[in-house]
Amino acid sequence: MSAPRQDPLRDPRFFADPYPAYDRLREGCPVQRVPTGSGGHSAYLITGHPEARAAFTDPRLSKDTARFFADRPSDRDLHPAVSRTMLTSDPPAHTRQRRVATPLFTAGRVRELRPYLTRVVDGLMAAWRPGTEVDLVAELAVPLPVTVVCELLGVPESDRATLTGWSHELFDATDTHRVDAASHRIGDYLTHLVETARATPGDGPLHSLLRDCDEGGLDRDETVSLAALLLVAGHETTTQFIGNAVLALLRHPEAFDRLRRDPDLIPGALDELLRFDSPVSVATFRYSTEDLRIGGFDIPAGFPVLIAPGAANRDPAPFPHPDRLDLDRDATAHLSFGHGIHRCPGAPLARAETEIALRTLLTRFPHTRLAVPEDSLTWRRTRLTRGLTALPLRLA
């Protein structure tokens, strides 16, 4: 099958519903060369599940973006704290930074946080009343993970809304200059935050994180980049996870009713909800450092490689009838959190936040429904993450 003539991930219809495009691409070839952008560049897009899983663990696919773009002209101007994070590095630098980040999100640590997470959710929903309308995205899905990660970083409440806005701009697929500007606002802010904390003795969460960074051998720039990664990745994907999960349940009343009747089923349903509408549509940048084969398909050296968890999670081979939300399905093989050494270390926290949000919503407002026609919902215009701009609900 010939490669698409235009970037298939920039079609306006893709943002509203990427799955028909993913199906066509996967059926044509699960690993294929596609155009990217409008400058004549191309990349290899991976849409099959076994191929994506293999690519996530192949050491010949590097995430070192600085190395890839070192000799390539570019008009991009991302702040180093955003462009040179753990997500854009290979071992041993990646190993050193991940060793600091992982303990923040262990299962035990998240269990300790659950009472706090519950208090945050309760506070956000305290004014909600049956018969009223709320925007789930603006009033719960955004502020919940933002509040949690900002507490971890010691960000004052007065600054959180501004940081959230910058983070959203960072994922704007339509305006690279806006993305670059947002990266500098975030990077400059966090640099100041870290330097201020270092100059001010204390025992808060940020001071604890800074001690961990020092003990882990991270320098100042690496410490700021870790803070940036925690801020952006720590809430963007969780926001989309919560919104996508609630919409999926509203679109499938039998699943909604089942969880409403037995909220203890919610933890076991999270993997299927993640699989069904992944908050990560296309994983972050990788490139081939040498000629290689993925699933029997050749990828030459020196090409960007895009792994699409959103497509892999709808592959009918591991997931029969993939377009059906099936709470009885074993969906643990989904790739929404990635796979291998770059698998999201914050996955346990994201799951806990979403579980508590869903449990509280279904328990307090068991007959909630959409407050607007479904076809009026709009989606954020970014191919990296998939999420709604708003989710108006009528509480009941």
TrEMBL record:
Which keywords has UniProt assigned to this entry?
Answer: Heme, Iron, Metal-binding, Monooxygenase, Oxidoreductase
Q: Please list every transmembrane segment annotated in the UniProt record, as residue ranges.
A: none
Its domain of life?
Bacteria
Q: Which Pfam families match?
A: p450
Return the similarity comment.
Belongs to the cytochrome P450 family.
This chain belongs to the protein called Cytochrome P450
Classification lineage: Bacteria, Bacillati, Actinomycetota, Actinomycetes, Kitasatosporales
